[in-house]
Amino acid sequence: MCDVLIIPKDGLKALLLEFKQVRKEEELETAAKLALDQIQAQAYHTELLQYPYIEEVLACGIAFSGKSVLAAYATYDLAGKQAGDVHLTSRYSRQEEMSS
Fold first, then answer.
1. Where does 1-100 show beta strands of DSSP type E?
2. What secondary structure letter does DSSP report for 45?
3. For the segment 3-30, what is each residue's pLDDT rounded down to a tens digit?
4. Distances (CA, A) of 73 to 52, 61, 62, 85
5. What is the pTM of this model?
6. Nearest to 51, CA basis, from 15, 98, 87
7. CA-CA distance, 57 to 71, in Å (whole number)?
8. Closest of 41, 43, 33 to residue 74, by C-alpha
9. Helices (DSSP H) in the chain: which residue ranges?
10. Separation CA 69–CA 97 (nearest Å)
């Protein structure tokens, strides 16, 4: 089971979240992609097939290092059983925000 699964009461999109923590900021992208790969490899989206009103899933792999975070995400079409392209967010660091 993934770390967080959000199932909407109604609507069409569910949310799967998998978290990873790394020691070095340079490892954020790799860890975020690894978390997203884990969602795909473990087929966590199959838990949602029991909810016929859910047509799409947003899967997010989120990696943390200290106060920095980066996410990799993709959408999955449950009806067509197709995965979308993988996207990365910009790295966010609390330290960068404080120095601005």
1. 4-6, 13-21, 56-65, 68-77, 82-83, 87-88, 92-93
2. G
3. 999 999 887 799 999 999 999 999 999 9
4. 23, 6, 8, 8
5. 0.83
6. 15
7. 16
8. 33
9. 28-41, 94-99
10. 13
Tens digits of residue pLDDT in 72-84: 999 988 876 767 7
- What are phi and psi for residue 63, nearest 5 degrees? -115, 140
Q: Where exactly are the structural domains of the chain?
A: 4-99
- b/e code 16-33 from CB counts within 10 Å (16+ = b): bbbbbebeebebbbebbb
DSSP state of 91: P
CA-CA distance, 54 to 8, in Å (whole number)?
8
User: How far, in Å, CA of 91 to CA of 3, rounded?
Assistant: 21
Residue 47 falls in which region: left (phi positive, over 0), alpha (psi -120 to 50) or beta: alpha
- Is the torsion defined by CA of 14, 87, 85, 29 positive or negative? negative
